Amino acid sequence: MSQETESEQSIIRELPPEISNKIAAGEVIQRPSSVVKELLDNAIDAGADHLKIVIQNAGRTLIQVVDNGSGMGKEDIRLCFEQHATSKIQDVDDLFKVRTLGFRGEAMASIASVSQVTLKTKRPGDEMGWKYEIWGGEEKSFEPAAVESGTSVAVRNLFYNVRARRQFLKTDATEFRHILKTVQQAALANPDLGFEMIADTDTIYDLPKEQNIKERITDMFGKSYKASLIYFREETSYLTVYGVLADPKLTKRSRGEQFLFVNGRPIQHRYLTHIILNIYDAWTGEKDYPFYAIFLDIDPKQVDVNVHPAKEEVKFEDERSVIKLTKSVVKKALHEEFMVPDVSDRNDEENSFSSKGFSSDFNFGGSKNKQRNRGEKEPVKFPSRINFDRPKSQKGDQNNFSKQLYDFDKTEKKEQNESEEDNRPQRMRDRGFWQLHDRYILTQTRSGLCMIDQHAAHKRIIFEKALSATEAAIPSTQQLLFAQTMDFSASEFSLLEELHPIIQRMGFNIQLMSGNTAMISGVPADIDVGDEQSVLKSMLQQYRALDGKFEFDERRKLAIAFASKTAIPKGKKLTDLEMENLLDQLFACDEPYKDPLNKPTLEYIPLEDIEARFR
């Protein structure tokens, strides 16, 4: 068979560059934040000491990074958009001593293949700079230009030529949060560099250069962090571990402020994160997430940074030693600051998995307890208001169970005189209401036993009220005696801006001000006085935790977040009257049998099932 015949029959073809670059872009450029990360890496590697990031429409319309670094000459401009072209790797050995952030030479080629890129650059010693435009991998123009020293890369209309990828992007709020996290990582890893970030018309960050890590954190996340930061540093011949841990009181109900770096590179390390969170468990609850920024400096030969397409993961040569030393240093720093009993793992750390990604049990002087005795602390204050306005009418079509519950005593008269009403708690005990471990309400029905989860039930009630409030023409608001100002982090304020119209309809009266500040002058009636700021911040955190996990609209997610924060907690003692009113309001709901996330609010055990257990 001739060579020509074999070629005609071949089913394997070499892909043209325009297709292969788009495939590579799918690995490297997953969303707008991926572009931001690659451009920031290049700017930092170029020796810049000031970086400006400009974002429009959460990166869909424009992502621009301007730096005052070394710039490029004419001969390097086209090369930087070639696949696998880099100034940072010369031979195979260089892969094992990488100190720079970018090194693969894939980023610019991938970005250019799925967007419209305009690059302007000039070296400090050159009289004239250059402007280069490349759209979808195709060169549009290349000409001299009068530009400042350094490099400006503007990426417009990301994924304009790959519509399917553009459709898979999340909401603007979600994409912006990813961008913000990327900028935060770069700014924390480089407190000596100045960072300016502008989103649409708002200045998010304006961070001066030559800051220390505590100053950088305070400027980025708010003044409330200033007095809560613990600096630590331990050096060994193999590894240096340093950074900042936050006071365990400074926790949030969602992830997002846990930062881990290796040789200045932000990384994800699932098991190391699990270890750090488990150390904090001695002071916090399982669903509380503290702030920390931990830096590991290690010989590049001891770590492989080339194991992930987006360079988000690394592999240590001696994983066990890195984890053991980091754990020891973090535990020591927290122990010395707070003077609490040492925490030791019940089981070997490598065999333990938990709700924060893994799990573990801790032993305090032989007693098994995941959380420190908190009797010495002030109890957390939750709103406990159960509205004493009985529902106007109970749902007649829920099913026979609610009728059994409310019609238990058929001999009870529908109309009561005033003296009987005064004896209401006794009547409730006659009907059979009990609170079990201050968590569950038990009551007998004609044919069995009903167990109600008080927290889940109240969540359903508040959720439906909040959802209904957003549809009302005039929000129901209780005005505060004195308006309160609140400072937010950049990500919180951005989310507050996006959700502001819905939050207002729920009954909040909030005025957005400059500098990530808002003023609260009114709140919904379900919020206890003094809890306004805590509830609002927790709502935003809970909303963020729900975002991306459930296919709910913004209004529903916000109502769930509000209900989760303001519902009576498990462990709250209820009066007889509160229990009765809770059940009245639950069965007046449209969906009384499930909480907003479809978990059961109550369980029913038939009498015959109970009798069967005694046979």
From TrEMBL:
Designated name of the protein: DNA mismatch repair protein MutL
Species, as recorded: Fodinibius salipaludis
GO MF assignments: ATP binding; ATP hydrolysis activity; ATP-dependent DNA damage sensor activity; mismatched DNA binding
Matching CDD domains: HATPase_MutL-MLH-PMS-like (cd16926), MutL_Trans (cd00782)
Annotated keywords: DNA damage, DNA repair
Sequence similarity: Belongs to the DNA mismatch repair MutL/HexB family.
A Gene Ontology term for the protein's cellular component: mismatch repair complex
PANTHER family documented for this protein: DNA MISMATCH REPAIR PROTEIN MLH, PMS, MUTL, DNA MISMATCH REPAIR PROTEIN MLH1
